[in-house]
Amino acid sequence: MPTNAVYLVAGLALLLAAVLPPVLTRYAVSAPMVLLVVGMAIGLAPLPDGLNLDPVDTRPVIQRVTEIAVLVALMGVGLALDRPFSFRDRSSWAAWSATWRLLAVAMPISIAAVALLGWSLGLSGAAALLLGAVLAPTDPVLAGDVQVSGPQVLDDADADVESAEEIDEEDEVRFALTSEAGLNDGLAFPFVYAGIFLAVKGPPSEWILRWAAWELVGKIVLGVAVGMVVGWGLAKVAFRAPRRALRLAEQGEPLLVLAALVTTYGLSEVVGGYGFLAVFACGMTLRTAERGHEYHATMHQVIENFERLLVLVVLLLLGTALTNGLLAPLDWRGVVIALLLVFVIRPLAGLLSLNGWRHRPDASSGMTRPEALATAFFGVRGVGSLYYLAYGAGLYAFPEERWLWATVALAIALSVFVHGALATPVMRRLEVRRERFTA
């Protein structure tokens, strides 16, 4: 492919990224679906000389690009959630009940099920556990069709803050999927480390206590703490600094959100915490300050535009790789794992986690059964899985690495097409049903 043709393809892809979201809102076709198909079509054409799409050879590049994409998405999710959370408020914990259930029940079940399935199909224990951890987190990058749209702000600056906090309370499905995606992308790290430790350090008896104390608990607490501290400090400056020149919210300076993202991630990684959790916690803490202020929408718009560009790059390259040899190592085992993950493992794990937490259709909290089914089913897999696989494979040379890349890529593509096709009609049907009961 000549260089001029590359520019042409890139330009058309950027145009697609700008046009697709508003055009496809009424149809059962998502922007990620179209971008992935475009990438697959590009992969069938002659590619520029020297373009290497082998995931093993380009692992460091994949890790950095997907890392940035996930970080940007996590900051966007933190800013988008309108429902507040307070450690000291019991009602706040209850309002996030669906999130805790999905994280504490659905995620471990998904990891264990995929790991056991992989092990039973012939993978080593370490590779199977890594695969379970890689495919467990739902994705904040590609799940836009089933997540909250963004921060809602008050038209009247003097309105009661509580009215802003009540926005989005009715759409329990979107809130649950958005908050789950924001948190479980960081919570997958301990299990990635468990797979690495199993490969490097031997039996769990040799490392399980240290893993539980530091990787499972210590780094999570540290990451959340760093995110909250940085978010609180930046919010104090942006909204309440004594000098007007420092009150960036009044000036509408949107670059604060990028400064917050990079600072939070860097500080958390330096002190040893999980940077993904720190960034999400920072976004949530920033959102807590002056919740009804329009500055939140301004910051979110910057993040959203940056995220769309990164999604464009990742999906085009993934699609190109899919038709350029990425799936060559795939065998029937990978197909079985991908199909069971999307159609059986995640839906059943999600339903088990939400079992018993459903109320009448006209209740003020909880989910109806159709809402619980939708929440359980729409566990979108995406960019986060690519990052975790690149990260884990960079720490230990798994003999099954190429097979792992093929299996994860297939699972992501399957998720993009299945969830992308069903998201619009299902979410529209739930909204109609909700309006009928609340009318």
TrEMBL record:
Pfam assignment, any one: Na_H_Exchanger
Domain of life: Bacteria
UniProt cross-references to InterPro entries, sorted A to Z: Cation/H_exchanger_TM, Na+/solute_symporter_sf
Ranges of residues in domain Cation/H+ exchanger transmembrane: 15-428
GO terms assigned for molecular function: antiporter activity
Membrane topology term: Multi-pass membrane protein
One GO cellular component term noted in the UniProt record for this chain: plasma membrane
Signal peptide start-end: none
GO annotation terms (biological process): proton transmembrane transport
Localization in the cell: Cell membrane
Main subcellular location of this protein, as a coarse class: membrane
UniProt entry keywords in alphabetical sequence: Antiport, Cell membrane, Ion transport, Membrane, Transmembrane, Transmembrane helix, Transport
Transmembrane intervals: 6-24, 31-49, 61-81, 102-135, 181-200, 212-235, 255-281, 309-328, 334-352, 372-391, 403-426
UniProt-recorded name of the protein: Sodium/proton antiporter, CPA1 family
